[in-house]
């Protein structure tokens, strides 16, 4: 059964097949719910006030505008809405423009379903997400300095939830115990745990704790 505090997702794409596919994907997730869709930018803007949306999955190509224009308008209407680009466009200029207007993430339509779900959960928590294919495009086309400017940071940035989970991991709590304490599913805990290891570039629990202490992410005195 869906929870009251689940992630509410709207899908905006001019291809109904994509919308139907995303709706089918999301309906099996206990912490995510599909709340609406739109085929054009105008439809999305008109509907957004009547829906309690946390994350908008947005294509870039639309009949009456672009995902870039729509993202700018959505963020003006409600800065709390997280926009996650789901598109076929691999042009680095598109990636940068979406980030510049406030998108929280960018993934390609060829991305596997598990990564799409991971991206939704990350941006819903206030984090940033670039698909693995998108990261490769950026690394292949940008200098390290430009890459950091595009991502908006030059060091590890964890979301509030990731910080909570990291501190509980440091106290040797299991995924089951963390899930119970934070009132979330074990699957969600595992997703955050995987993101923490990826962001900190660590491969073991010992390495993660050492990194966290060194960078002030946890208080070793507690």
Task: Note down, in words, how this protein is organized.
The chain has 222 residues and is an alpha/beta fold. It is built from 11 helices and 8 strands. It has 2 domains: 7-151, Rossmann fold, CATH 3.40.50.2300; 160-214, Winged helix-like DNA-binding domain superfamily/Winged helix DNA-binding domain (Arc Repressor Mutant, subunit A, Orthogonal Bundle). Helices cover 51% and strands 15% of the residues. The strands form 2 sheets. The protein has a 6-stranded parallel β-sheet, sandwiched between helices. It has a two-stranded antiparallel ribbon with strand order 4-5.
In brief, what are we looking at here?
This protein has 222 residues and is α/β, with parallel strands linked by helices. The chain is 51% helix and 15% strand. It folds into two domains: 7-151, Rossmann fold; 160-214, Winged helix-like DNA-binding domain superfamily/Winged helix DNA-binding domain (Arc Repressor Mutant, subunit A, Orthogonal Bundle).
Indicate the CATH topology of the largest domain.
Answer: Rossmann fold
Catalogue the unreliable spans. none
Query: What fraction of residues sit in β-strands?
Result: 5-15%
What's the helix count?
11
Shape estimate: globular
Percentage of residues assigned to helices = 40-55%
Query: In CATH's first tier, which class of the largest domain applies?
Result: Alpha Beta
Instruction: Please give the alpha-carbon distance between the first and last residues.
Output: 37 Å
Outline the biggest β-sheet: 6 strands, parallel
The CATH homologous superfamily of the largest domain: Response regulator
Order of helices and strands: EHEHEEEHEHEHEHHHHHH
Question: What gyration radius follows from the Cα positions, in whole Å?
Answer: 18 Å
The second-level CATH architecture of the largest domain is 3-Layer(aba) Sandwich
The order of strands across the largest sheet is 2-1-3-6-7-8
Please tell me the total number of domains: 2
How many strand units?
A: 8
Write down the overall mean pLDDT.
85
Which class of secondary structure composition applies to the elements? alpha/beta
